[in-house]
Write a structure and sequence with these properties.
Rossmann fold; 2 domains; 7-stranded antiparallel β-sheet; single chain; about 25% helix; Jelly Rolls
Length: about 450
């Protein structure tokens, strides 16, 4: 007992940006003496509002609306709203990419957002899935099995990661002959995931490859492809609940990204979660790779949802992060000119002060910084912290079994509740957009 109590006096241990938590068995009875934790965030709300001068629309009660600051550039929510308004005549699916960290790992949050949008606007299938996964069983929205892949990741230094192949997924894969990936629809988790109407396998580089696809366990379809230094895809179309892609043999310099279970009409939502990511890896994606992706798998909206690995109880100034993320988003906008971008703030993250929990110092400054990033890049912003209830909201979610005991991460149940908040904001924004088009005499309504 004495040894455990003495751990409180250990010096702070830091490795890079990671800091070991202080062990304090008496934290529940110890008064808060950490005066430095009381320092206010460096960017006040009033200062932020004076800086932004952002357009503010009337917002109905119960909805935290999306603040579109794109102006004449229209690379905020307009591409998505226009596509959703014309979803039945678009001739392709409306695609949304959600880029985030462990907050959305396992398709938490995005699975429910996908289901709600597909129920409202049509569509089916789980969307894009990387070739392999560290924890394939954790993702409930698809049964994902695979063999023969070697993963190269932006946040894993054990294997080399080349910026030549860097892309939105944050990872790429090498394949041995015979490598395969199989995706199976599920029925017990959420609706509209059991079948799809189209599936694609994505790869890049130069060389040639022989690929086969097997739908619902039937006979194989074969594809021989010459890859011409770009992202390419082979696609099969059918009503399918299961699809297996196999790399029979290849030559040259090729990498593989993953496969999809999609719909030919309606909404597709792709989850691009990468654990421990801050979003800064996005600035290393080449313009060519972004342009190739835009051509091969065009997105109407890219949601940028980072922050857990940026917020710090010892930091309330994020100027460097603001500059780097602004550069990354502007870089993506230039290569994807018909895509909208939405910055989603970090959610509530609590820290223990004595016997009580309060929002971690630095979180509010980071949220304000993320709003300034959206303002700087002329994109859109949604305040997740405000939508989920602000101060103490993650504590209430833990009490309701909607979040984990780290008072940071939500679980699948919490993901459903928060996804509904963004879904309501998107639907209200789209309906307002369609109404305005109709009032102007447009033919898109």
């Amino acid at each position: 007992m004495l040894a455990l109590l003495s751990l409180y006096w250990l010096p702070n241990i830091e490795i890079g940006d990671w800091q070991m938590r202080r062990i304090d068995l008496l934290s529940d009875v110890r008064p808060n003496t950490d005066n430095d934790e009381e320092i206010a965030d460096t960017i006040s709300s009033s200062t932020l509002e004076a800086t932004l001068h952002a357009r503010v629309d009337s917002c109905p009660a119960g909805i935290t609306c999306i603040d579109d600051m794109s102006g004449a550039e229209e690379q905020g929510m307009t591409p998505l709203y226009e596509a959703l308004t014309n979803v039945n005549s678009l001739g392709r699916p409306v695609r949304i990419a959600v880029l985030g960290d462990s907050y959305i790992e396992g398709d938490i949050f995005t699975a429910n957002l996908r289901q709600m949008l597909q129920q409202h606007y049509g569509g089916s299938g789980v969307g894009f899935v990387p070739a392999s996964s560290e924890n394939p069983g954790f993702r409930r929205s698809v049964r994902h099995i695979f063999s023969g892949w070697t993963e190269h990741s932006a946040n894993n230094l054990e294997l080399p990661y080349s910026t030549t192949w860097a892309n939105l997924t944050g990872r790429y894969f090498n394949a041995t002959p015979g490598a395969w990936i199989e995706l199976r629809g599920v029925t017990k988790y959420l609706s509209l995931l059991d079948t799809c109407t189209t599936s694609s396998l994505y790869f890049a580089g130069t060389g040639s490859v022989s690929i086969s696809a097997r739908i619902n366990g039937g006979s194989e379809q074969y594809f021989n492809v010459n890859v011409n230094d770009s992202i390419q895809a082979v696609t099969v179309n059918s009503r399918m609940g299961r699809v297996r892609w196999t790399i029979n043999h290849h030559s040259g310099s090729l990498v593989y990204l993953g496969a999809s279970m999609d719909t030919e009409q309606g909404v597709v939502v792709d989850n691009y979660a990468m654990r421990s990511a801050s979003g800064l890896h996005l600035k290393n994606i080449s313009e060519k790779m972004l342009s190739d992706l835009d051509h091969t798998r065009h997105y109407d909206l890219v949601i940028i949802m980072y922050g857990l690995n940026v917020a710090s109880k010892k930091k309330s100034e994020y100027t460097s992060y603001r500059e780097k993320m602004t550069h990354a988003i502007n870089h993506m906008k230039a290569a994807m000119p018909n895509t909208g971008f939405l910055v989603v703030s970090v959610g509530d993250r609590e820290q223990k002060y004595g016997s009580s929990y309060r929002t971690m110092r630095g979180v509010l400054s980071l949220i304000n910084t993320q709003q300034l990033i959206a303002f700087d890049t002329h994109t859109a912003f949604w305040n997740l912290y405000k939508a989920m209830g602000g101060e103490g909201s993650i504590v209430r979610m833990v009490d309701n079994h909607e979040a984990n005991l780290d008072y940071t991460h939500i679980n699948f149940r919490g993901g459903h509740r928060l996804a509904k908040l963004l879904y309501d904001a998107i639907v209200w924004g789209q309906e307002s957009y369609a109404c305005n088009i109709g009032e102007k005499g447009g033919d898109e309504k």
